[in-house]
Amino acid sequence: MTQHWIDIKNADVVLIMGSNAAEHHPISFKWVLAAKDAGATVIHVDPKFSRTSARCDFHVPLRSGTDIAFLGGLMKYIMDKDLYFKDYVVDYTNASFIVSEGFSFKDGLFSGFDPVTKTYDRKTWTFDKDENGIPKKDKTLQHPRCVFQMMKQHYSRYGIDTVSGITGVSKENLLKVWDAVASTGKPTKVATMMYALGWTQHSVGVQNIRCAGILQLLLGNVGMAGGGVNAMRGEPNVQGSTDHALLYDALPGYHSVPTTAWPTLADYLKANTPVTKDPKSVNWWQNRPKYVVSLLKGWFGDAATPENEFGYGWLPKIEPNVEYASLFMFDKMYKGKIKGGFIYGHNPAMSMPNTHKIRKALSNLDWLVIGEAHETETCAFWRQPGTDPKSVKTEVFMLPSCQRGEKDGTTSNSGRWHMWHYKGYEPAGDSKPMGWMVVEIMKGVRSLYKKEGGAFPTPILNADWYEQYDADFMAKKINGQFTRDVTIGDKQYKKGDQVPAFAMLAADGSTTSLCWVYAGSYGPGGNLTKRRDHTQTPMQAKIGLFPNYSWAWPVNRRIIYNRASVDVNGKPFNPAKTVIAWEEGKWIGDVPDGPAPPMADPKGVYPFIMHTEGFGQLFGPGRVDGPLPEHYEPAETPITANPFSKQMSNPCMKVAESDIDALAKNGDPRFPIVLTTYSLTEHWCGGGDTRNTPALLEAEPQLYVEISQELAKEKGVKNGDVIIIETLRGKVEAVAMVTVRMTPLTVQGKTLHLIGMPFCFGWTTPGCGDATNRLTVSVADPNTRIPEYKACLCNVRKADKVTELQR
């Protein structure tokens, strides 16, 4: 989130798209309702009517997988009618930048596409530069190759008739949403956009979110109170997990994982440290060497020295252009290329796509270690129905994990608030925190290396490891410390002192930090995640910043890019909802994005400090599948022609290919229905915990499928019947919920049916059915490798015999 939960109350328009916030993020929805009570228009765009829809001013159903068409039409509407925030767009975005002549877009493909590798060479996705190496600009926005004009041309194809025809949204509903959102392209009105897995779990997931970023920049809503792009992060500490590099391609603090193309630290830093010639651009990532060296010092301690590149050579390196994401890790496992593994708090045997393949893949391992609080489908894959345990060679070790309430630690919420939670009671039985498990296993591994040696013992033995797991100690390590006495400005710090903020981190080995964005969370003032102080200044109280409650990264800033909430002279665009203001030579309000003066001052800087050029990116060349979002159909689509171009699906999407993976052809008559999946309020994620909680299982006891009354009539199905849902990957039994919450859509002149299913049920809970993800596709977004759970093709029929669900 660029904002935080409370700030949602400051919005004039709330667009919830790709999220069922009322049911899955109820704390966020408290503030949505506060905004509504204050007069905000609240809109829910989603294939299914839900509790969120019921509390909104209007609900707009659309075909799953067509969000970019819907939002691309909104971009055209805003630009054609001059509804964008002109001063903001000209001064703070790259709308005026001149795109290089080599860039082009034709037939659904951007310049540089290689059909063999299905990747882009992005060298033409650049800007013309002047003699000083600074991007050329046309602040009149009239140059035919300026970003603004390129966008107008790109989205000229997204007229209301075409958008309505492909999304299934009526023109009346399109205009209701477009008018409401576009009304905020002025200083005194602001919209916020809220999304969740309904946007990310597509083969164009990143580009869905890029649409939100582009729209909020056009409307001047980023950095403003009540504005921004707000990701509804999940309950399993998704924000904190991402910050600390849960994903394969990142190191803690959003650094790229080293590859064999960068054999030395110098190579790595050269490739990953951007350079700008513009003196007004902060270009914050120029500090990457400080953060990476501090991370290495945190990992290897005194053993990390300048002479050995702080241990960089000890890190494993991935191969460029080789897939390491979990979707493809299980593909390798299925093909016998992985021998063992650890799975902590994750149930891929029911939550990954095409679970038939996942379960077979687990059977190919020699050994598997699982840390879990309950037996799940992954723990027990070796005895699943239809499997003879004697035929499974995998040796499974089950480590009993305690629950969150049984351990100390922190979580980071969607608004980047880093908060301490205290142990409520001692762990039951022999269960232990997962952190304890990792520490103890590593201690055993180190002991074996010391005793027996090994192929590459140096990084194992040089790791600055811990004798015992302690959450408070880890929080200190994450913040960072000084490794020797240093003087910074007029202040002296002793060896072992906590680093006050990431501005103090250094590239010379004098500091450590296991995640630079968290530097300051546990500084000289102690563990700030434990703060519960509600005090704030009158200015802060007006918008609800609460700066002394817990701690927000970075540097306790509550609204990021907040320098874009003021004009070039530092005066708030909307004085009624001031985030920061330049008064008497200093910033007041929120922690600003740096202490430099406003942009008009000779020493002033651009507001988007994390971007190399310092401007919000309407044209974003950093994505692998295009600098502008383009509508592509899901990997499985009920239509046979994309009305926007010749290219049907994302040309760069990642597809796992094996003898057990299959994709239906476009418009396959065998599977004419679109299936989307979702979570439930009563069950946490895959349900491994909550299916073992009797009251929650009683509330939602078994797998069901929501189908419209029209589809039920067509298939001869009544409410409560058990039906079979089938795709090319497999079939699942579920109880039919015949409901008005799902409605048929008219797509390209034909009636299209959608159905929806929760994914939280599995066979280890008797009588509740098995995984919905038996049905879903092994296809992923090319930027993140997040699978496309939200749209695939299926068919349904009434079960013709008594099933497990009926017994």
Automatic annotation (TrEMBL):
Location (main, coarse): periplasm
GO CC entries: periplasmic space
Alphabetic keyword roster: 4Fe-4S, Calcium, Electron transport, Iron, Iron-sulfur, Metal-binding, Oxidoreductase, Periplasm, Selenocysteine, Signal, Transport, Tungsten
Domain Molybdopterin oxidoreductase: 4-443
The keyword Transport is annotated on this UniProt entry: yes
Cellular localisation: Periplasm
Top-level taxon in the UniProt lineage: Bacteria
Molecular-function GO term, any one: 4 iron, 4 sulfur cluster binding
Residue span(s) of domain Molybdopterin dinucleotide-binding: 674-792
Cofactor(s), names only, from the UniProt record: W-bis(molybdopterin guanine dinucleotide); [4Fe-4S] cluster
Record bears the keyword Signal: yes
Biological process per Gene Ontology, one example term: anaerobic respiration
Pfam families in alphabetical order: Molybdopterin (PF00384), Molydop_binding (PF01568)
Recorded family membership: Belongs to the prokaryotic molybdopterin-containing oxidoreductase family.
Name under which the protein is recorded: Formate dehydrogenase-N subunit alpha
Native source organism of the sequence: Solidesulfovibrio carbinolicus
Gene encoding the protein: fdnG
